[in-house]
Amino acid sequence: MPDTLTHPTVTAVTLDLTINGRRQRVQADPGARLLDVLRDGLMLTGAKEGCGAGECGTCSVFVDGKLIKSCLMPAAKAQGAEVETVEGLARTGDLTAVQKAFHKTGASQCGYCIPGMVMAATATLRDNPDADIEEIKERMGGNICRCTGYSKIFEAVEIARDVIAGRLPHTALDPEAVGNSFIGHNTRRLDAPSKVTGRLRYAGDMVMPGMLHMQVLRSPHAHAKIVSIDTTEAEAYPGVHCVLTCDDVPGEDGFGVFVEDQPVMARDKVRHVGEAVAAVAADSVRTAREAMALIRVEYDELPGLFDPEDALKSGAPVIHDYAADNVVKHIPVRKGDIAAGFSAADVILEESFSTQQVEHAYLEPEAGLAYVDHDGVVTVVSPSQNITHHRHMLSHIIAKPINKVRFIMSPVGGGFGGKEDMIYQGMLALAAMKTRRPVKLVFTREESFVASAKRHPSRTRCRMGLTKAGRITAVEFEMLSDGGAYGMSSEGVMRKAAILSCGPYEIENLKVDTKVVYTNNTPSGAFRTFGGMQAQFATESMMDMAAERLGMDPFEIRRVNMMRAGSLTHTQQKLASAAIDRVLDAAEGASGWEKGAPSVRGESRGDLDGPGTRRPCTLGARVRETATDRFRP
Ligand code: FES
Predict the structure, then answer these.
(1) What is the helix (H) or strand (E) element at residue 310, kind and residue range?
(2) Which of 106, 222, 432, 478 has the highest Cβ tally under 10 A?
(3) Does 431 have pLDDT greater than 50?
């Protein structure tokens, strides 16, 4: 991650470079990377750091005409070189054809990958102006985008190629004329020009005069009592301005969207690997890291809890004193008469499903900048997806009235729900208050992995009763989710999972229980669909298995059960309208589905039994027959 370019105890080297056509002389630490020199020394922040390991391509620049990943290149190796960054592409003020094409197709969403993508696309067309789509994909394969699905990016490169070659007129890059209304037209993102030129500043790109840099000491243990924390040596280290622990929290040290169970930094014990224990604010990232190594923490390890089913057993380790049963939240939904519903069934299917933990992996790692302004307002700039809630939580943490707390949402370089839960903003605010200086924190990719919330891993048992005509008579649905060490958005996720559990199907009798428990795993939180994905995976799989079992077309069994205008939802709201029939028609048409096929499940993929082998999917074979299984299709 970006460091300041020189360190007091290290002799700087002088680099002579030609950057975007101008000769520049820069002082740099001998260990600095080219990316550090560009970002910290020259403020060319169009080159981003997404991974720091040469995997994502957000830091792509040209060195002597060759596209390279600047996070991998020692700055000293660029001595005397000509370097071209994304800021150098549109030097005349007019966007290049590639940049205009990215704007035209809507290729930039969060935009964090886009400067690197523009550089890779430019390199592709410079190397082969006639590159076909396969070559474009191949040549741009070193750049990752988490938002777009790539199709708009590739479309943009093809349009730019054809405009440059004269096969398309330049007007092909112009905005679509929309007349008096945008409705029915492709509209352009207002922020696209700043994204394709690298001018847009994300939190990690921001600097303020006198700014300090924060680093966070994290727990190596999943569950341990903190016996002592000694910060004496770290505080005395030259260049350090403050060291924070939980003792520095002036207000209520517990926050969370639904349950206030999370301290700003670990208090008394740590509950997951990577939990923040202490933080250092210093003149440079490097100094902060060196001081952090001097903090002495004595731990007394406790038994860990890593399986959500174990969390419910009697005698299980207790993660939070307030929840002796380790339950964060249980959401029950009841409708109709479940016993009567199963009695009316001709066939009953029962199956279990599990989904795994998923990392959001947004390309912009967490970052923030905090300062206290001239009116004493504590201000945090960060890519928060839940800014009002964060502001209220911070006001309690720092014991200041709400009008003395400001949150500014910086551009979000990908979130997908992962930036809804507050993690680090409290530490930044405390450091700014303690030092009266702006303080910045940028996570490494590794920190982002260990310290940010994930999609809830889930285990679901579903029992479904149906008539031989495919009508669902009853559903019993139990989901157990691993909430990890803190509650975060778990309650909302469980509520959504419960509400969506039985899909868009009208079911008279249902019994739904979604439950989330504490463990010592990385906390779970918001992620696209907010619990809906885990629930739908179980329910839609059951629908396919039921269709197969009853010899019905999978679209047909859904039409038999779909909610219509006037249907009562699982939580008893009467629907004024419903469009599921149109969704099914569209999906059936677009997929080219062969009507009447009894199974949507084909061959399994991958190397299951050794190279070159394939075998049929056997999921259906595990459908269990029950005593009420009277119907044999
Ligand atoms: Fe590519 Fe967001 S637009 S990562």
Answers:
(1) helix 308-311
(2) 432
(3) yes
Distance 531 CA to ligand 1 centre (A): 23
Q: How would residue 42 be classed by pLDDT, with cut points 50, 70 and 90?
A: very high
**Per-residue model confidence (pLDDT) at position 619:** 38
Ligand 1, closest atom to CA 195? 3
- Centroid of ligand 1 to alpha carbon of 323 (angstroms): 40
Which pLDDT tens digit goes with each residue over 564-620?
Answer: 999 999 999 999 999 999 999 999 999 888 776 666 665 544 444 444 443 333 333
Give the ligand 1 atom nearest the CA of 110: 2
- 3.20.20.10, 3.90.1170.50, 2.70.50.60, 3.40.50.2300: which CATH number matches 212-302+361-451? 3.90.1170.50
pLDDT above 60 for 621: no
**Ligand 1: which atom is nearest the Cα of residue 109?**
3
Rounded Cα distance between 390 and 404, Å, is 13
Q: Is 361 in the pocket of ligand 1 (CB under 6 A)?
A: no
Measured in Å, residue 95 CA sits from the centre of ligand 1 at 20
φ, ψ at 461 (rounded to 5°) = -110, 125
Cβ-based neighbours of 366, under 8 Å, separated by 6 or more:
382, 383, 419, 423, 424, 441, 442, 443, 447, 448, 451, 452
CA of residue 451 to ligand 1 center, whole Å: 21
328-358+454-633 carries CATH number 3.30.365.10? yes
Which pLDDT tens digit goes with each residue over 319-371? 999 999 999 999 999 999 999 999 999 999 999 999 999 999 999 999 999 99
Architecture per CATH, 97-176+192-200: Orthogonal Bundle (1.10)
pLDDT at 620: 37
Best residue among 51, 119, 363 to mutate for probing ligand 1, ranked by most atoms within 8 Å of CB: 363
Report which secondary-structure segment, H or E, holds 195. helix 192-196
Q: What spacing in Å lies between the alpha carbon of 108 and ligand 1's midpoint?
A: 6
Q: Which one-letter amino acid corresponds to residue 275?
A: E
- pTM recorded for the entire structure: 0.90
Among 145, 200, 412, say which to mutate for ligand 1: greatest number of ligand atoms within 8 Å of CB: 145
Both tokens of 129, joined, read 């102006």
Question: What is 13-82's CATH topology?
Answer: Ubiquitin-like (UB roll) (3.10.20)
Q: Which atom of ligand 1 is nearest to the CA of 413?
A: 2
Q: Answer for the pair 411, 383: CB distance below 8 angstroms, yes or no.
A: yes
- The residue extents of the domains of the chain are 13-82, 97-176+192-200, 212-302+361-451, 328-358+454-633
Name which residue sits closest to atom 1 of ligand 1, judged by CA.
145
pLDDT at 546: 96
Residue 116 Cβ inside 6 Å of ligand 1? The answer reads no
Cα(278)–Cα(294) distance, rounded to whole angstroms? 11
DSSP state of 118: H
- Mean pLDDT calculated for residue range 274-283: 98
453 CB within 6 A, ligand 1? no
Which tokens in the block code for residue 60? 């792509």
What one-character DSSP code corresponds to residue 620? G
Q: Quick check: CB of 145 below 6 Å from ligand 1?
A: yes
CA of 618 relative to ligand 1 center, distance in Å: 37
pLDDT digits (tens, 9 = 90+) for 98-148: 999 999 999 999 999 999 999 999 999 999 999 999 999 999 999 999 999
